[in-house]
Amino acid sequence: MGSTHHLGAIKTGLLCGVAVLALPLAAGCSGKSAASGNAATREGTPATLDQLASRTGCTLTGQRKAQELEQGNCTNSRGRYVLVSFTSDKGMTSWMEEAKPWGGSYLVGTRWVAVSTPTTLESLKKDLGGRIMSGDSHGEMPGMNHS
């Protein structure tokens, strides 16, 4: 993923999941998508973390589970990404409100989010559906060179 974003404290129950996003993504996913059916149809239905991983051809690593969410890391030919599934719309909305100020790119579906670079998210969108959203832009600091 591009630049690292450090996430601050968040509401109780979501702290674990968001804090894990600041951790480096672990390697270990490969393979092609096992998805079948129409991505547009799937995006309207909540999906488990395992279903999201299967649709993107990923074997999850670094899985974390909290009261409101479940999260895992993936690395494959598409890139590195984090998949997050939520138990409620309210939990997902709270998570997004806390994550977006830190920047980043998100592929957002019904009670799930993928976090990665825009290029990787475009690739995942073919199998998952959803819409790509960007976090707040912070711009570059003078004298800092971001690659």
3D structure, described in words:
The chain is an alpha+beta fold and 147 residues long. It has one domain (29-134). Helices cover 28% and strands 24% of the residues. The protein has five helices and six strands; from the N terminus they run H-H-H-E-E-E-H-E-E-H-E. It has helices at 15-21, 39-43, 49-55, 89-99, 118-128; strands at residues 61-65, 69-76, 79-86, 105-109, 112-116, 131-134. A six-stranded antiparallel sheet has the order 1-2-3-5-4-6, with helices on both faces. The longest helix has 11 residues, at 89-99. The N and C termini lie close together (11 Å). The model is unreliable at 1-37 and 141-147 (pLDDT under 50).
What keywords describe this structure?
147 residues; alpha+beta; six-stranded antiparallel beta sheet; 5 helices; 6 strands; 24% strand; disordered N terminus
Number of helices: 5
Cα-atom Rg, whole angstroms? 15 Å
Question: Which quaternary structure do these chains form?
Answer: single chain
Shape: globular
Main beta sheet strand tally, sense and closure: 6 strands, antiparallel
Distance between the termini: 11 Å
Q: What proportion of the residues form beta strands (DSSP E)?
A: 15-25%
Number of domains: 1
Q: How many strands?
A: 6
Mean pLDDT: 74
DSSP helix fraction = 25-40%
Q: Secondary-structure element sequence? A: HHHEEEHEEHE
The strand line-up of the biggest sheet is: 1-2-3-5-4-6
- Which structural category fits the helices and strands? alpha+beta
pLDDT below 50 for ≥5 consecutive residues: which ranges?
Answer: 1-37, 141-147
